[in-house]
Amino acid sequence: MTSVKEQEAIRKLMVFLQEWDSAHKVARSRILDNFIKSNDGKTEPELELEFSQGASLFLARLTAWLRMTYTYSTCLNRLLKSVGIFLSAASGRRYLTEFLEIGGVSILLEILGLNHLKEEDKRESVKLLQLVADAGRKYKELICESYGVRSLAEFLATSKSAEAQEDAQVLLDSLGHGNPKYQNQVYKGLIAVLPCASPRAQQLALQTLRVLQ
Questions:
Q1: Rounded to two decimals, what is the model's pTM?
Q2: Model confidence over 124-168: pLDDT tens digits?
Q3: Which of 54, 61, 117, 193 has its CA 20 to 30 A from that of 164?
Q4: What count of other Cβ atoms lies within 10 Å of the Cβ of residue 90?
């Protein structure tokens, strides 16, 4: 039998989820701001404590909204940062699995190719892809299987943000290591960047190619 304290915690969770479900864009934006402020850097056990063992219920709502709105959302950055709290949570491998099950990698890669989206949103997308890659070889392979190398190479070549280009280069470098099945694909992707119009992208691609050789 659940204690009074546990019942109260579950009630609070249900109220929070109902508030999210009924909220419009501005209210959801505020909920995301509060979530980021309160939960940045938390581990999986801490997030579960915060959400009465129901953190996955909120993650499911975040990923569903991301899937529906990523092509036009005005608070995409907050949404990606909120998902990032789950993906970066220590001991939070199941959050990563849940995110991947909804096609998270494909969504993040598609964001990189949408010209009308802000550079900061694309950079946040690269950061989440890095979290996926950091989880191990099979996750790197998943990114590559989803045409990730091509998307990242194109983003590196065309991005106007030096920081975003560096993030893309670090991720490509990561995909080229501990990932023998796709190392050659990463190599070819970086070669394809060399004729681009951005001297910074060329320099970063060359640096990575030297390391991979």
A1: 0.96
A2: 999 999 999 999 999 999 999 999 999 999 999 999 999 999 999
A3: 61
A4: 11
DSSP-assigned letters across all residues of 28-70:
HHHHHHHHHHHHTT--HHHHHHHTTT-HHHHHHHHHHHHHHHT
Cα distance between residue 79 and residue 62, in whole Å:
7
d(CA 150, CA 210) in angstroms, rounded, equals: 19
**Among 177, 199, 200, 197, CA closest to 187:** 177
Q: Can you tell me the distance from the alpha carbon of 20 to that of 163, in angstroms, rounded to the nearest whole number?
A: 33
Q: Are 125 and 132 in contact (CB under 8 A)?
A: no
Cβ-based neighbours of 164, under 8 Å, separated by 6 or more: 119, 122, 123, 126, 155
